């Protein structure tokens, strides 16, 4: 057992924990990062499969994600644009695949009008919200105690419009059925991305990717940490704490520190035994944040055959097993990669199938209903399975149960003595995204520095500038 003494110990080497560690070490503090897995990156993870680059976890960046943009600028990481040229495919409830162009789904004019009405309503609600404080929205309690499913139907009689709008937040983002989270949670998702318009515009929200891959961002940050800082294969299962500091117990490293950044997803807080136990409020709060569940399907072909047919690879099917598909070919690769998404109750169905062969057959058949027979024969087929990853337990991220956001949210970012919580799932802007993880990492570092150095913390700091830039501003 290695016994270390540091100013700060960080638990979790995902983008949030690593950003916090990087900022703290640049500010001259000694840091140790204890990571459960044998790799960095957490919910961002890249593998090579038969020559193709597969982003198993997070991958896209949108123009408003300026926290992440400032970090990659600092690291010298470039981005490339997702392939967007060509027409898209929409699968109707009756199972017809319609090729279309433009922003509107090819549905009845009255449905388009209803969808636009709902989009406008969500835009208004999002504009009234400070994403850092969604519980201060004038209608917070009302919106948090109605499910998004029922909220949509209270505002429109058009079932197709409700399903289509529901897709953008339910299957598309929170990866829970729309009856399982509140309208306030849905408005937060929109507000965190700038507007609901941004969220429903796939060319905005899924704009670009990292040339290093998204896990590459964490790898580059890790390279810049001082020696003897990062310790992989060190799950922390026991944390002693008092006003004087903490002792974090990893598998073969124990760290005594003045402060701890707990940079694990909120659903895993209770995986750790705390001595003494956390206060009542946190013990209760942490039971109300749970992971969604989505399967990311990767299918690699000899060529991106859909492009030759004038298609972008973008497909939507709100009532289908595979609800979204995109061209996911990595920069410079000649093969063509499609990524599909199977969310919540549809994911349950896929995992309940008997064998990998059956899953492959069912999923490819569903994808072929959008893009034709050639879809059935990929050279690589892989399903991202974060639900069975012990150190994540779902995907993409955690959200509150009905009523939880306005009840527990206001204190979710309060530190408990020396313990600071840092996760993309606690962010306002960039909520549930790598951008939010970076912003939270910087904000946690800033709060700890203020405590350690006896200076004041600027509550308005949004985590976009690095702490050095902020100090020099
Ligand atoms: P994250 O979960 O990444 O890291 C936490 C770390 O803590 C992990 O490394 C874990 O192993 C470790 N840990 C847990 N318990 C521990 C313990 N007890 N002791 C030590 N270590 C412990 N975002 C985006 O911006 N664009 C996108 O396209 C997508 N797409 C996407 C797809 C999929 C399939 C997933 C799963 C997620 C995304 N995301 C995304 C979300 C994005 O990946 C996510 O928001 C960030 O990775 C969160 O970063 P954090 O550092 O907060 O947690």
Which kinds of small molecule does this entry bind, naming each only once?
dihydroflavine-adenine dinucleotide
Query: Under the CATH scheme, which architecture of the largest domain would be assigned?
Result: 3-Layer(bba) Sandwich
Mean pLDDT: 97
Shape: globular
Biggest sheet architecture = 8 strands, mixed
Gap between N and C termini, in Å? 43 Å
Name the CATH homologous superfamily of the largest domain: FAD/NAD(P)-binding domain
* CATH class designation of the largest domain: Alpha Beta
Structural class: alpha/beta
| Structural domains: how many | 3
Give the radius of gyration. 22 Å
Kindly identify the CATH topology of the largest domain. Answer: FAD/NAD(P)-binding domain
Number of contiguous helices: 17
Estimate the helix proportion, in percent.
Answer: 25-40%
In the predicted model, the low-confidence regions spanning at least 5 consecutive residues are: none
Let me know the number of strands: 22
Taken as a percent bin, the fraction of beta residues is: 15-25%
Describe what this molecule looks like in 3D:
By secondary structure, the protein is α/β, with parallel strands linked by helices. The chain folds into three domains: 2-42 and 215-278 and 416-472, FAD/NAD(P)-binding domain, CATH 3.50.50; 79-103 and 293-395, Polyamine Oxidase, Chain A, domain 2, CATH 3.90.660.10; 106-204, Guanine Nucleotide Dissociation Inhibitor, domain 1, CATH 1.10.405.10. The chain is built from 17 helices and 22 strands. The strands form five sheets. Strands 1, 2, 10, 11, 12, 13, 14 and 22 form an eight-stranded mixed sheet that branches. Strands 8-7-17-18-19-16-20 form a seven-stranded mixed sheet. It has a three-stranded antiparallel sheet with strand order 5-9-6, with no helix packed on it. α3 (109-127) packs across α6 (159-174) and α3 crosses α7. The radius of gyration is 22 Å and the shape is globular. The model has no long low-confidence stretch (mean pLDDT 97). Bound molecules: dihydroflavine-adenine dinucleotide. Dihydroflavine-adenine dinucleotide (FDA) binds next to α1 and α16. The site of dihydroflavine-adenine dinucleotide has 41 residues, from α1 and α16.
